[in-house]
Structures are given as structure tokens and as C-alpha cells.
Amino acid sequence: MYTYTPRGVCPRAINIELDGDIVSHVDFEGGCNGNLKAISKVVEGMTVDEVAELFEGNTCGRKPTSCVDQLVKGLRLAQNA
Predict the structure, then answer these.
(1) Which 8-state DSSP code applies to residue 21?
(2) Structural domain boundaries enclosing 15
(3) Which one, 14, 33, 43, 61, has the greatest CB density within 10 A?
(4) In what order do the strands lie in the sheet with 13-19?
């Protein structure tokens, strides 16, 4: 289990489990509960690169980042941990 502390978004933490480069589990602490539960289900079974291709660089409103963009940052760090 790797815990990433996102910056510039509502969730306080993103808990990540990888099996090699495959996302086996993700859960967000805080944020938009329903949306983030759905995102967690969508990314399970995907590779880190597949998730990055979909979500890296996405923004939220006027913010320069988003929950899914921060997820990609956390996945990259978890992958190298």
C-alpha cells in the first residue's frame, strides 16, 4: 500500500496498491465520494500507463490539476517506490 498526499485538490490522501504496473486498488480519503469511488473502479486492472494516458493533465475548474491528475502522480510515485 502506497499513500500519496495530493496537492491542490479536495482529497486528503490517495491509497494505492499496485501489482507490478497494474492498479489493483485505489481509494481516496475525502473529495467527491461518488465520483472518486467510480474512478477507483474504472482504473482497477489498468496499467499505470493506461491510467496516465486517460487522466494525466486533466484539470478541475480553474485549478491547474484535478483528482485524477493527482492520481496519476501518485501512481507514478507508487510505481517507483
Answers:
(1) T
(2) 2-80
(3) 14
(4) 2-4, 13-19, 22-29
Cα gap 18→6, rounded to integer Å: 18
Helix 33-43, helix 67-80: angle, nearest 10: 40
> Residue 20 has which C-alpha cell?
507490478
Please report where in the chains the cell 501518485 appears, as a residue: 74
13-24 per-position pLDDT tens digit: 999 999 999 999
State the CATH number of the domain containing residue 59: 3.30.390
The total of structural domains in the chain comes to: 1
CA distance 18 to 30: 21
**Residue 8's pLDDT band (cuts 50, 70, 90):** very high
> Which residues does 57 contact at the CB level (< 8 Å), separation at least 6?
69
Q: Give the predicted TM-score (pTM) of the model.
A: 0.94
Q: What is the pLDDT of residues 42-53, one digit of tens each?
A: 999 999 999 999
